[in-house]
Design goal:
heterodimer; A: mainly beta; seven-stranded mixed β-sheet; 11 strands; 0% helix; 49% strand; B: mainly beta; globular
């Protein structure tokens, strides 16, 4: 199975600040078809996860351009700029390149 | 708009069975696979498996083989998850999620299953 390692476990940021979350996979996430199925989700307190980014760097419909994804192979990053109160929650990376699909253990974002 | 609406919370005793439903709307049900994801309260996300909504073929993650059954009521655009012989460790929030070919763009609201004697 592909192990997804997220860091940090938690972070605290001031409103308006910028943060980066790292996600590393134990194997390359490049699919045989050339696509890389690395996605990012935000789970706000008491809610279902919501998709932010898919295929490394594509923002889902309605997602602010304050969220950006980058990376390749086994090393990926989510950046959040101009942090707002509504950004708090737990961020997960996930891979859909090979079965079983797997998720990182999550990064909890708190607002200072 | 696209929605996945799950059935309500369940309180069960060890050894009992439970069936959770996930009703889809706003798109052609058979065009996208449906996945199931488990989340123990306060913990992370664990993929349980998926069902091909066109053929009805289920695929289970290793930890979810044996007591777990994915099924469909395609005419009702509904995917179901049945768990038999419930154990305390089955206590979790269970989500259905629509596969967008490698990522999950739409999630149900979650169904909390509590197993307690």
């Amino acid at each position: 199975d592909v192990v997804m390692t997220q860091t940090p476990v938690s972070l605290s940021v001031s409103l308006g600040g910028q943060v980066s979350i790292s996600c590393r996979s134990s194997q390359s996430l490049v699919h045989n078809n050339g696509n890389t199925y690395l996605s990012w989700y935000l789970q706000k307190p008491g809610q279902s996860p919501q998709l932010l980014i898919y295929k490394v760097s594509n923002r889902f419909s309605g997602i602010s351009d304050r969220f950006s994804g980058s990376g390749s192979g086994t090393d990926f990053t989510l950046k959040i700029s101009r942090v707002e109160p509504d950004d708090l929650g737990v961020y997960y990376c996930g891979q859909g390149t090979q079965y079983p699909f797997t998720f990182g253990s999550g990064t909890k974002l708190e607002i200072k | 708009q696209i929605q996945l609406v799950q059935s309500g919370p369940e309180l069960k005793k060890p050894g009992e069975s439970v069936k959770i439903s996930c009703k889809a709307s706003g798109y052609t049900f058979t065009d996208y696979a449906m996945h199931w994801v488990k989340q123990v309260p306060g913990k992370g996300l664990k993929w349980m498996g998926w069902i091909n909504t066109y053929t009805g073929k289920p695929t289970y993650a290793d930890d979810f083989k044996g007591r777990f059954v994915f099924s469909l009521e395609a005419s009702a655009s509904t995917a179901n998850l049945q768990i038999s012989n419930l154990k305390n460790e089955d206590t979790a929030n269970v989500f259905c999620a629509r596969d967008n070919h490698g990522w999950f763009a739409y999630w149900g609201q979650g169904t909390l299953v509590t197993v307690s004697s």
